[in-house]
């Protein structure tokens, strides 16, 4: 068992005061503590961005990758040792812009990993350009006349790509977000969680109070999490913003379908009889 305090890395976040990433960090630590995960068997993998600094602030194994590349190393770590708990996390720019291909392919593969998008609807670290989730018409540093493009809807992408667990949380509701992350980690299969994360510096037009006014909880609305079409309809809502679990079903996971991975993780495979020289000769 590990407490939230024991998950403190000793490095203090340099996020702006009031940043929604603080709530996500607390919720992630809370979920790991709640599930009793062992820090040395838990890996937090990120991309590049303000939010992607998170592996520095949590005392588990961690890897900060390149921009848009949280999911490829997370996939590799999982496939090398699927007994580890792998949590990939990154911004909306990271996952819905440069990393969108990885996002969709990871969802369709049903790898048993969790992917969290810190969705502040802006490129935070590079000081305020519109991202793929910035809503049409929004004025940002890079779109002084309002962004002309329709925004990407991350839960809808995950549902379309075949994810088996799709949820949305709000960094201003830490107990609810903690529960969603814990449910995502516990889910056998890929779990996607989009998190409304206010950016208090570059999205002053999207404050905590607006989220609080707009959001409602799916679990209080009689939503059936096994109904894909109902999940799609909820994910497409714009007047009110649902949070909670949109969709959750069981399907065979990736590693169960590969005979040698079903038996044991790759790191435990006996390679004493494998001649590396033979491979080198063949491939070089
Ligand atoms: C290949 C590459 N392209 C662009 C950048 C510059 N860059 C760094 S962070 C970032 C966007 C960050 O936005 P987001 O992923 O939403 O994270 P946030 O800072 O909002 O948490 C960009 C474009 C980079 N580091 N690498
Ligand atoms: Mg962002």
Description of the structure:
The structure is a single chain. This protein has an eight-stranded mixed beta sheet with strand order 2-1-3-4-6-5-8-7, sandwiched between helices. Helix 3 crosses helix 4 (100-109) and helix 5 packs antiparallel against helix 8. The chain is α/β, with parallel strands linked by helices and 284 residues long. The chain has one domain (5-283): Rossmann fold (3-Layer(aba) Sandwich), CATH 3.40.50. It contains ten helices and eight strands. Helix content is 32%, strand content 16%. Bound molecules: thiamine diphosphate (TPP) and magnesium ion. Magnesium ion (MG) is lined by residues 49, 91-93, 120, 122-124, 131.
Backbone shape: globular
- How many structural units, i.e. domains? 1
CATH superfamily: Thiamin diphosphate (ThDP)-binding fold, Pyr/PP domains
Helix content: 25-40%
Number of helices: 10
Q: Roughly what is the average pLDDT, rounded to an integer?
A: 97
* Bound heterogens, unique: thiamine diphosphate, magnesium ion
N-to-C order of helices and strands: HEEHEHHEHEHEHEHEHH
Total E-strand runs = 8
Give the distance, in angstroms, between the N- and C-terminal Cα atoms: 47 Å
Oligomer: single chain
Strand order of the largest sheet: 2-1-3-4-6-5-8-7
* Contiguous runs where pLDDT drops below 50 for at least 5 residues: none
Strand content: 15-25%
Q: Could you say which structural class the secondary elements and strand pairing correspond to?
A: alpha/beta
């Amino acid at each position: 068992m590990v407490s939230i305090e024991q998950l403190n890395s000793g490095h203090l976040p340099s996020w702006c005061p009031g940043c929604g990433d603080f709530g996500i960090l607390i919720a992630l630590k809370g979920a790991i503590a709640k599930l009793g995960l062992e820090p040395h068997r838990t890996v937090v993998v990120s991309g590049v961005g303000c939010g992607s600094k998170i592996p520095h602030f949590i005392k588990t194994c961690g890897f900060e990758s390149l921009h848009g590349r949280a999911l490829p190393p997370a996939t590799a770590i999982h496939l090398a040792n699927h007994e580890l708990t792998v949590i990939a996390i990154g911004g909306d720019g990271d996952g819905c812009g440069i990393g969108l291909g990885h996002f969709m392919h990871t969802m369709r593969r049903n790898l048993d990993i969790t992917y969290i998008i810190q969705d502040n609807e802006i490129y935070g670290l590079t000081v305020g350009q519109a991202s793929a989730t910035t809503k049409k018409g929004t004025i940002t540093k890079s779109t002084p006349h309002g962004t002309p493009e329709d925004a990407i809807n991350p839960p809808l992408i995950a549902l379309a790509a075949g994810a088996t667990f799709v949820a949305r949380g709000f960094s201003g509701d830490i107990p609810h977000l903690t529960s969603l992350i814990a449910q995502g980690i516990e889910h056998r299969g890929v779990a996607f969680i989009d998190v409304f994360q206010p950016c208090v510096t570059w999205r002053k037009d999207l404050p905590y109070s607006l989220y609080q006014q707009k959001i409602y909880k799916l679990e209080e609305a009689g939503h059936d999490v096994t109904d894909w079409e109902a999940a799609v309809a909820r994910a497409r809502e714009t007047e009110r913003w649902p949070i909670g679990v949109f969709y959750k079903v069981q399907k065979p996971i990736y590693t169960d379908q590969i005979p040698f991975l079903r038996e044991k993780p790759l790191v435990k495979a006996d390679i004493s009889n494998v001649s590396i020289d033979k491979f080198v000769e063949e491939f070089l």
